């Protein structure tokens, strides 16, 4: 039996115990080899022999330098290591405290592998490594090895020695797999040196060892300090060695045993170094990128197509590695930095669609499986990985596989919500731990990575209804509150007893992990705002009546003014401010007159809109430019600024008393002053229109604005009347203002010629002695009007470029003569294939029939068209008579999608690679 000790072992044990001196015990050891056979050495027997020998005696042998003159210097060490290597396979003996205390001795021995006496030490070094590796098999042993800084010492051995280094690398990988990123300190030099040596070996070795090294390097990269390595890798040559080694493997005729470790290594390389690492080949940078992407897509399809969830879990490591490659590749392609021709795009799209069809198939099976609520830890991790990579695809290709996505969407939300609350609770519980702990990572938050995809999903009718049915808006509100607590970091309160002591102490610096968390939370809040903006616009009735959205608005009122005014917060600030405006517009009926709880919020939002443009920072004192503090982030907030200006105009109409803030703050006067100073032709037309629309609404809402406009000399024609025709400044301003008001009320009269009608409008507002100036003033006004409206050169170039590939059209509301005058004077006919004016037809926007008419004229199905507009009322909230009163027109799936493209930079729609041949563009300013 395994627990019985054989007679030979008992006899040897007795001899060893009866030895009266070390010399007798040393001699007795040789009796052991004579008396005991391998079959006698069971676990109990080994332990009895080890106790009989005693570690005190073995320690003397390990450390003694006093050897007979005719013996090698290491003879005693050799005997001790031979004994220990025989016994250390047993856990109890390998983790014996005396064994652990001998780790420095073992390390000293293996560090001599390059000494002159190497040949004599070969067996000793092997046995010392064997002891170390046996210790590393057990938790207490690994902890002891870490305490003795074995990883650092082994890394030094591997980088500096010539022989016996594979054992050192194996030991490093074993320990790093246990301690993760905490295995490495804050100085990355040793890690880079280690990777340089092992990557060079990987590149140059063409034997089977190459694939063993691939697995080891993969583990080292997976458990490295990624943020630190990514920041310091510039100038290192090991990434190039890795590139060449992996490229050689993947371009060769290989089997699964070689391909799998290469794909796993490539996945960890792109995860640490970024997908740009695949573009290392200067002559053909996209070749390896496309190869790796296609191999990953094919592997996912092979491993998941028509497979069950349990079957896929068996290959989770390989599939997850391919997911990493796919996710990073998709995100990179979405930036349009890679120059792919149409053939490349089609191949990539086909490969990705096949892979994600397989992923969706497995998710659908799992969603219908009764075990979905009882997933084990590894199973749940794989399910999360599937959701993560799928949502990366959906964030760019929302319309793909709609039916399958709809079937599995409730399950995706369920998984994402569970992961969010689990991660949130963990992070809140460990919030006080102000340390960088690379070993204890919080649970995965799948909702966080789903946010960009949700931005797109909620603009699809079916997906949005699932979103609302699952009460996902409540989860997103909880998510917003949580990320706000991180992004809007506040120092923990100091106990009263310690305040005096800490008064003169500097504030503790935030750790790199805290800074990274704040950055990620700011990004999350931007995505959350984009989702909630889409819901606010597309589900207006629900938002108007919702208690939750009222709470959200109150949260913005109370918290946005407290946000620190620093550049890092600008994009987040803008999104929260504009979300608040949209919510305020929808819930205007609930706002009590002079509810001054919103004062600070309105002031903060005005400041965001006001500070975007100025003249002071321009090289030309008459040119309007984006402010320096906005310039870095302008791409992210440009359309947000226009939406904010438009929504603010709408709010002033609904809640007139808010206009007081625009007056008292000096904003209205500042806008007018800016318009007066800017040189004609240099003011971007869309900015001018945004300002003018806002000022018009301001005048209608608050009579007190008129004197401000007159004081600032806003109107160009008024300046002409004053300067050339002797009008007083006040009379000139009043005349010009009256004309513009009359023109906006009725820009066209179908019974009178256009020029005659507008001249008549001037004649009506001019004093009796100056009515003869009507025709002259109309001509000058018309000249200035179209000078401002002229298409900038870059817009003309864009339209010309678009028309090379697409059919373009315009739909515009307004009177026939006025709109066609605008079209003719701006020479728009040469850019567009179809131009529709509402007065020429039985319908006007937002009636869906006018959109169908444009599609008919272009000869393109509605589902293959894309529309672009800037007004909610006529562009997005298309009349349809559903239970919410408004909806996007059936057959126009891209309608709301393009709304997000124009106004919500955080949820940009990117068409599939097989995009259609038609784009429907609309000009929406009727009375410019």
Automatic annotation (TrEMBL):
UniProt xrefs under Pfam families: Hydrolase (PF00702), Neurochondrin (PF05536)
One GO cellular component, as annotated: dendrite
Gene3D superfamilies: HAD superfamily/HAD-like
Family: Belongs to the neurochondrin family.
Record's protein name: Neurochondrin
GO biological process, one term: neuron projection development
Origin species: Anopheles merus
Entries under InterPro entries matching the protein: HAD-like_sf, HAD-SF_hydro_IA, HAD_sf, Neurochondrin
């Amino acid at each position: 039996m395994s627990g019985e000790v054989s007679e030979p072992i008992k006899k040897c044990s007795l001899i060893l115990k009866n030895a009266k001196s070390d010399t007798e015990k040393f001699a007795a050891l040789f009796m052991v080899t004579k008396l005991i056979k391998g079959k006698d050495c069971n676990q109990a027997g080994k332990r009895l022999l080890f106790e009989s020998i005693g570690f005190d005696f073995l320690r003397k042998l390990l450390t003694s330098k006093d050897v007979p003159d005719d013996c090698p210097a290491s003879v005693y060490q050799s005997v001790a290591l031979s004994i220990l290597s025989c016994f250390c396979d047993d856990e109890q003996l390998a983790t014996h405290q005396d064994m652990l205390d001998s780790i420095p001795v073992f390390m000293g021995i293996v560090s001599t592998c390059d000494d002159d006496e190497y040949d004599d030490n070969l067996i000793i070094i092997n046995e010392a490594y064997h002891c170390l590796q046996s210790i590393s098999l057990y938790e207490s042993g690994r902890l002891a090895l870490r305490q003795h800084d074995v990883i650092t010492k082994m890394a030094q051995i591997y980088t500096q020695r010539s022989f016996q280094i594979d054992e050192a690398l194996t030991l490093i990988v074993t320990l790093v797999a246990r301690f993760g990123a905490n295995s490495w300190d804050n100085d990355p030099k040793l890690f880079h040196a280690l990777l340089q040596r092992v990557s060079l070996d990987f590149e140059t070795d063409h034997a089977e060892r190459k694939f063993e090294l691939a697995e080891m390097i993969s583990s080292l990269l997976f458990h490295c300090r990624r943020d630190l390595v990514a920041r310091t890798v510039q100038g290192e040559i090991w990434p190039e060695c890795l590139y060449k080694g992996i490229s050689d493997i993947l371009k060769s005729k290989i089997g699964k045993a070689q391909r799998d470790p290469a794909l796993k290594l490539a996945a960890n390389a792109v995860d640490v170094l970024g997908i740009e690492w695949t573009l290392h080949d200067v002559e053909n940078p996209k070749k390896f990128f496309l190869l790796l992407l296609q191999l990953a897509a094919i592997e996912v399809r092979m491993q998941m197509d028509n497979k069950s969830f349990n079957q896929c879990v068996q290959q989770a490591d390989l599939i997850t590695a391919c997911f990493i490659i796919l996710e990073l590749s998709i995100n990179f392609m979405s930036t349009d930095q890679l120059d792919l021709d149409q053939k490349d795009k089609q191949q990539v799209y086909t490969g990705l669609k096949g892979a994600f069809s397989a992923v969706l198939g497995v998710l659908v099976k799992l969603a219908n499986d009764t075990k979905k609520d009882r997933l084990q830890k590894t199973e749940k991790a794989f399910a999360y990985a599937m959701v993560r990579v799928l949502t990366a695809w959906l964030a760019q290709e929302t319309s793909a596989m709609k039916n399958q996505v709809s079937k599995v969407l409730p399950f995706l939300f369920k998984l994402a919500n569970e992961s969010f609350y689990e991660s949130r609770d963990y992070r809140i519980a460990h919030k006080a731990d102000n340390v960088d702990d690379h070993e204890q990572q919080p649970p995965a938050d799948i909702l966080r990575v789903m946010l960009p995809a949700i931005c797109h999903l909620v603009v699809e009718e079916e997906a949005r209804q699932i979103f609302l049915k699952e009460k996902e808006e409540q989860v997103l509100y909880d998510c917003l509150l949580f990320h706000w607590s991180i992004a809007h970091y506040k120092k923990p309160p100091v106990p009263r007893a310690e305040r005096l002591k800490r008064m003169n102490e500097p504030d503790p610096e935030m750790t790199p992990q805290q800074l990274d968390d704040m950055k990620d939370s700011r990004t999350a809040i931007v995505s959350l705002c984009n989702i909630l903006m889409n819901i606010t616009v597309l589900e207006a009735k629900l938002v108007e009546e919702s208690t939750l959205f009222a709470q959200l608005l109150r949260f913005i009122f109370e918290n946005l003014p407290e946000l620190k005014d620093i550049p890092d917060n600008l994009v987040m600030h803008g999104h929260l401010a504009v979300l608040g405006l949209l919510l305020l517009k929808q819930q205007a009926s609930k706002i009590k007159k002079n509810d001054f709880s919103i004062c600070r919020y309105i002031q903060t939002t005005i400041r965001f809109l006001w500070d975007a443009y100025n003249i002071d920072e321009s090289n030309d004192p008459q040119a309007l430019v984006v402010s320096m503090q906005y310039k870095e982030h302008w791409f992210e907030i440009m359309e947000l600024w226009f939406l904010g200006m438009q929504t603010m105009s709408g709010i002033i109409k609904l809640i007139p008393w808010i206009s007081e803030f625009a007056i008292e703050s000096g904003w209205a006067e500042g806008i007018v002053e800016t318009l007066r100073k800017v040189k004609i032709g240099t003011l971007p037309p869309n900015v001018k229109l945004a300002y003018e629309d806002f000022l018009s609404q301001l005048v209608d809402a608050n009579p007190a604005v008129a004197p401000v406009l007159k004081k600032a000399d806003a109107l160009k024609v008024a300046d002409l009347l004053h300067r050339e025709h002797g009008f007083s400044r006040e009379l000139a301003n009043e005349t010009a203002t009256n004309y513009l008001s009359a023109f906006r009320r009725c820009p066209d009269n179908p019974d009178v010629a256009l020029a005659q009608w507008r001249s008549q409008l001037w004649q009506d507002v001019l004093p009796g002695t100056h009515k003869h100036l009507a025709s002259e003033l109309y001509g000058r006004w018309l000249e200035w009007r179209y000078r401002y409206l002229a298409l900038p050169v870059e817009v003309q170039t864009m339209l010309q470029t678009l028309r090379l590939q697409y059919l373009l059209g315009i739909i515009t509301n307004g009177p026939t003569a006025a709109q066609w005058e605008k079209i003719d004077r701006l020479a728009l006919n040469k850019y567009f294939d179809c131009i529709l004016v509402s007065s020429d037809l039985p319908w006007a926007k937002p009636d869906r029939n006018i959109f169908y008419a444009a599609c008919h004229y272009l000869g393109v199905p509605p589902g293959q068209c894309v529309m672009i507009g800037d007004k909610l009322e006529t562009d997005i909230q298309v009349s349809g008579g559903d239970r919410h009163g408004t909806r996007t027109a059936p057959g126009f799936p891209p309608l709301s999608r393009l709304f997000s493209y124009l106004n919500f930079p955080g949820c940009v729609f990117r068409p599939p690679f097989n995009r259609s041949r038609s784009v429907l563009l609309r000009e929406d300013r009727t009375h410019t």
